[in-house]
Amino acid sequence: MSDIRYDRLHDDYVIIAPERLHRPDCIPDQKTQKEETLSRCPFCEGHEAMTPPEIFALRDKGEANTPGWRTRVVPNLYKAVRIEAPWQSHARGPYDLWEGFGAHEVIVDTPRHLRRMDAWTPDERRDWLKTLRSRLVDLRKDLRLVYFSLFKNHGRYGGATQSHPHSQLIALPVVPRSLLDRIHIARHYRQTHGHSLFQGILDYEEESGDRIIASDGHCIAFCPYASQYAFEVQILARGEGIASLADLDESGIEGLADTIGKVMAALYRELGDFDFNILFNTPPMQKNIQTDEWFEEIPQFWRLGVHILPRLYNWGGFELASGMRINPVVPEEAARLLRDGK
Ligand SMILES: [Zn+2]
Questions:
Q1: Ligand 1 centre from 83 Cα, in Å?
Q2: Distance in Å, CA 274 to ligand 1 centroid
Q3: What is the pTM of this model?
């Protein structure tokens, strides 16, 4: 049983989730045999009985919870939050808490355990994005779920405890401070400049070209001007009004899948096998007391973005104390390597 506790001083929430302590650590070390890891991997094809029953799957054949799938979605066995928990908040003296209500799902990206992302086919990338979109569209029908975090952890430094390629979706009844802050900045920029901040960044990056890695009719990929991570990449959708994955049509999915494919191929080429996180910057999906004032305006000031964060270095005391990162790789240099390979 988990709690979502409100920190009044920092105006932010923390999820206290003791169940997460019991997760198995299935990232193999150098000595572990790959065969041994594969035989006990709950996400491999043929091991469907090792997970809770599936919520969704893209299938070529077979019934639910049998082989024949291309992507598969199951509830996270080690949930940070539960959809069965009461949708209730309580005051506790100077504190507030929400019972641990929310959704926590695992998206198994591909049946192939050893499939590195640069080896995914265009169809595999599209299936992955379509599955994420489908879960977002389905879960936002639940009016209690406001904030949606869609992400992929890969490797130990990316926070993954399973080596099989997978993504996760966590949906909560409250919006965290960091997203509200970004929303307020993006909204204020739109009000004062007459165009969205994302469009401003997109136009400037395209004009200067120094940090661009790839670009087509659907999106552009670039190393952010103030990259916090070495070889950090941001992908932005071009279309006005495309605020989240849920707004992408089939050709938009195809365009984003192609760009992610190009970026991952370039990153693997430059970095070798590396750990990373991929984050989708999904805006709040419901009106509530936190979002009521600007909810209808979201498509005007927000834009779908995908952040790819290589986890090459750990943070030290300075980063933790100040909240500022030290990035040893110049973003223009990273972009040149990823774009040109030299
Ligand atoms: Zn596996």
A1: 26
A2: 18
A3: 0.92
| Cα–ligand 1 centroid distance for 192 (angstroms) | 50
Q: How far, in Å, is the centroid of ligand 1 from the Cα of 85?
A: 30
Q: 58 CA to middle of ligand 1, Å?
A: 17
SS (H, E, C) 107-147: EECCCCCCCCHHHCCHHHHHHHHHHHHHHHHHHCCCCCCCE
Query: Alpha helices of 140-235 — where are they, by DSSP H?
Result: 177-193, 197-208
Q: How far is the CA of 39 from the centre of ligand 1 (A)?
A: 8
Of the candidates 257, 246, 268, the residue with the CA atom closest to the CA atom of residue 341: 268
Distance between CA atoms of 332 and 245, rounded to whole angstroms?
28
Question: In this structure, which residues have their CB less than 5 angstroms from ion ligand 1?
Answer: 41, 43-44, 113, 164
d(CA 27, CA 10): 34
Return the pLDDT at 29.
55
Q: How far is the CA of 44 from the centre of ligand 1 (A)?
A: 4
Per-residue pLDDT tens for 114-136?
A: 889 999 999 999 999 999 999 99
What pLDDT score does 18 carry?
74
Region 1-25 average pLDDT: 76
Give the pLDDT confidence of 213-225 residue by residue, as tens digits: 999 999 999 999 9
Ordered domains of the chain (ranges, CATH):
3-172 (3.30.428.10), 177-340 (3.30.428.10)
